[in-house]
Amino acid sequence: MPFIPHTETDVRSMLDAIGVEDIDGLFDEIAGGLRAGELEGVPEGMPEMAVNRLMERRAAQEGRPLCFLGAGAYPHHIPQAIWQLTTRGEFYSAYTPYQAEASQGTLQVTYEFQSMMAELTGMEVSNASLYDGGSALAEAILMAVRGNRKAKSKRVIVPRAVHPHYRDATRTIVRNQGIELVEADFDRSTGTTPLEQLDSALGDEPAAAVVIPQPNFFGRLEDVDALTDRAHECGAQVIAVANPTALALLSPPGQWGGKGVDIVVGEGQPLGIPLSAGGPYVGFLCTRKNLARQMPGRVVGRTVDADGNTGYVMTLRAREQDIRRSKATSNICTNQGLMVTAATLYMSIMGPEGFERVARHCHANARALRDELCAIDGVSAAFDGPFFHEFVLRIDGRPVTDVLGDLAGENILGGLALEPYYDNLGDAMLVCATELHGEDERRAFAEALARAVA
Amino acid sequence: MSEVPSDLKYTRAHEWLRLEDDSVVTIGITDHAQAQLGDLVFVEVPETGSSLGAGDAAAVVESVKAASDVYAPVAGEVVGANEQLDESPELVNNDPFGEGWIYKLRVENPAALDELMSAADYEAFAESEED
Predict the structure, then answer these.
(1) Which of A100, A189, A241, A454 is deepest in the core (most CB within 10 A)?
(2) Would you say domain A66-71+352-453 falls under CATH 3.90.1170.20?
(3) Domain limits, chain A
(4) pLDDT (tens digit, 0 to 9) for every residue of chain B, 131 residues total?
(5) How many domains, chain B?
(6) Rounded to an integer, what distance in angstroms lies between the CA atom of residue A143 and that of residue A208?
(7) What is the pTM of this model?
(8) Exposed/middle/buried for A351, CB within 10 Å: 0-12, 13-18, 19+?
(9) Is the interface score ipTM higher than 0.85?
């Protein structure tokens, strides 16, 4: 079969069959004023060789900066084997196939992904993935409100220390569904969400859920046990937003407080997925067994066939949109298949020990970097207390954007200016270090920063 | 043709109602409906105490191939739900008119029940739907 199935003869015979003069005739229904006409600013096509040359020039312009920018997307070492295997023809599909059970290998990978994510988060069930961390949080909130049949509350407490983009995405997705998002502020000296702020956000009204980030947007570790218990005392469900690398070291959300959280979501990009200008990434969502039917998306289960052979099947699909239409649990009818494959391979190649070593290196490098940078005059840590692979610096004497501009001039992405997201933190920037940032990289950063603030 | 007990009332959405006293009815889905759905894997029963309008979605029956709503045939307050279905949804398949009942409703206006179908009407209706 040719790659382009419609030859001119095919098109002609199809048009003749329905009695239409030409392709444009198919769009007669649409009034002239509504048609886009010629697209402006779209250049002529280019031959492949010219495209290659153009792209190489553009790539050279971008350079290979030393990246200390985290804020939700983290540079990590990705072993070659992961994408070598992920892009094999047998796996190379963005989606779960429509005739799912015909692709046992794809289903098995998804099943392994779910098993690993459930183990990492300490939960009983995982879905087959969602688009990204931000939309996963929105789905978790919709799920918590659906599951909250007794109190019927539509209030959800979202700390300001949750990633600002996650809060934006969530607001966009849930605001027309009558859900009220209530902010809980963070403490200016610790950068974490104190119990008193949770209490004042909760007030006397019932709430469907409380969101708890770990680590939070500032890299700070929240007092997750106390926050979880308080939320449960008030009859609210708890949604954890967790970084998967941090979970290699920290206690899993399934064990927070007396009862553990109810839903865990997060961004799976740190698991072997390159930064690639912001996507595609992969969201994860894990929960307890008794909430499985409120869970968005799909789940792959393991079973046996009539002859007793192990087989993998798509399960709990009856509540998806293609079957339940407007009454579906969500509009998610697929998963991030390719990213799930990469994440699964990453976790299996690393193994629990290797993954923990990555997390320890991240932590050690971030601590060393913070000490080295804070030794520079005019640079100080904005918050006290434990953090994971990310921290906030305060700069005295020069605007942060100027400092970051100077660093960029030296081919260093020094961090994220927080002013556009938080109006009262002053000249502050969020800086990240992972296992990629050893002594040489940190020294280059510290020397450039010293020049920039001098 | 599937079983259609003569002492019950029926709806076009394939629910049956049994009048327990002056105002309380027990509601379930018919033998015909369970056969169409296939093996049920989950039944979501309504909260006791919630009030339903006529035509509101009251429960969800989920089989391996579909999840369907069970509607309130008349307005009323839920006064009981079959909690056994949580563990054993197959009761609806095995005994749709007995142990497979779904919920009990205190009817707001008992006269509304007169509008529902008799066994003979339902039998004819279900047959005509199959054609």
Answers:
(1) A241
(2) no
(3) 66-71+352-453, 80-345
(4) 588 999 999 999 999 999 998 799 999 999 999 999 999 999 999 999 999 999 999 999 998 778 889 999 999 999 999 999 999 999 999 999 999 999 999 999 988 888 999 999 999 998 888 76
(5) 1
(6) 10
(7) 0.87
(8) exposed
(9) no
